[in-house]
């Protein structure tokens, strides 16, 4: 059912292989009519100069502002398969973990050409840029941005990897109370900033927690992501639980979820902001 293609990308003297799965109708010419089924895919395509080749996308694809003018063919509720067919795409870029499995299966069975975006670590953004460049005919710009991304991520790691660890509770959501474990993208960001995720060893990737769990974990800092949404996080009155070190020392910080949670180059902007804020908390705690 699938052909497996490997793109060998030369970076200086280093050869990197990025493997992607395509349907049997995979083409060797650059795609000109692309349906991008995730906001981060849209961002990356615009980054490399392929934004004008997108004919449709999904809800929440809101960056850059030109993306707001692209027709929508679905969202968290699923895809409009008939509308996708009417657009006659020569490539559909799918986020396997963000699109319903049954919708993906339908697209495959209809013989559409699919490629999958599946970054499972923060280094993977560079590989995806190269993949998208190869698929769209924008290899040069993609390679330039991939190198810049890798260099900036390396700089952040070097800056914070030897700092004194600070324990963090990442409040992914408040009702129900949720966080992240070590298998997640967000955990890798926390690590990059030289911090420790107090729920790293939880058996669930996105565990639902009780307040008692937080009290026992004793985080020194509570991070609260904020996103541009019609439904903001319900506010927790943390002052009721002064036995938690972060509450006792008033160590709370907000981060931009629209940057931190997306698999795109802009994540680095959000990551640097988060690392700087964690460093300020670290210095504050040292003085106390």
UniProtKB/TrEMBL annotation:
<dbReference type="Pfam" id="PF01497">
    <property type="entry name" value="Peripla_BP_2"/>
</dbReference>
<feature type="signal peptide">
    <location>
        <begin position="1"/>
        <end position="19"/>
    </location>
</feature>
<keyword id="KW-0732">Signal</keyword>
<feature type="domain" description="Fe/B12 periplasmic-binding">
    <location>
        <begin position="33"/>
        <end position="282"/>
    </location>
</feature>
<protein>
    <submittedName>
        <fullName>Cobalamin-binding protein</fullName>
    </submittedName>
</protein>
<dbReference type="InterPro" id="IPR054828">
    <property type="entry name" value="Vit_B12_bind_prot"/>
</dbReference>
<dbReference type="InterPro" id="IPR002491">
    <property type="entry name" value="ABC_transptr_periplasmic_BD"/>
</dbReference>
<dbReference type="InterPro" id="IPR050902">
    <property type="entry name" value="ABC_Transporter_SBP"/>
</dbReference>
């Amino acid at each position: 059912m699938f052909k497996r293609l490997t793109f060998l990308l030369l970076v200086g003297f280093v050869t990197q292989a990025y493997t992607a799965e395509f349907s049997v109708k995979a083409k060797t010419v650059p795609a000109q009519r692309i349906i991008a089924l995730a906001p981060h895919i849209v961002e990356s395509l615009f980054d490399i100069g392929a934004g004008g080749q997108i004919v449709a996308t999904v809800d929440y694809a809101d960056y850059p502002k030109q993306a707001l003018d692209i027709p929508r063919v679905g969202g968290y509720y699923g895809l409009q398969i008939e509308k996708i067919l009417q657009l006659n795409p020569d490539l559909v870029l799918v986020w396997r973990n963000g699109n319903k499995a049954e919708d993906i299966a339908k697209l495959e069975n209809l013989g559409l050409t699919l490629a999958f975006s599946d970054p499972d670590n923060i280094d993977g953004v560079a590989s995806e840029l190269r993949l998208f460049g190869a698929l769209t005919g924008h290899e040069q710009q993609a390679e330039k941005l991939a190198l810049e991304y890798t260099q900036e991520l390396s700089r952040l790691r070097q800056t914070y990897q030897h700092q004194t660890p600070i324990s963090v509770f990442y409040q992914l959501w408040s009702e129900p109370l949720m966080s992240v474990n070590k298998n997640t993208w967000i955990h890798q960001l926390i690590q990059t900033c030289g911090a420790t995720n107090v729920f790293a060893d939880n058996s669930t990737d996105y565990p639902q927690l009780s307040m008692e769990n937080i009290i026992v974990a004793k985080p020194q800092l509570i991070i609260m992501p904020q996103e541009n949404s019609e439904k903001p996080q319900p506010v927790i009155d943390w002052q009721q639980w002064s036995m938690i070190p972060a509450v006792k020392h008033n160590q709370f910080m907000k981060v931009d979820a629209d940057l931190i949670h997306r698999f795109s180059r802009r994540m680095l902007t959000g990551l640097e902001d988060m690392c700087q804020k964690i460093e300020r908390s670290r210095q504050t705690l040292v003085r106390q």
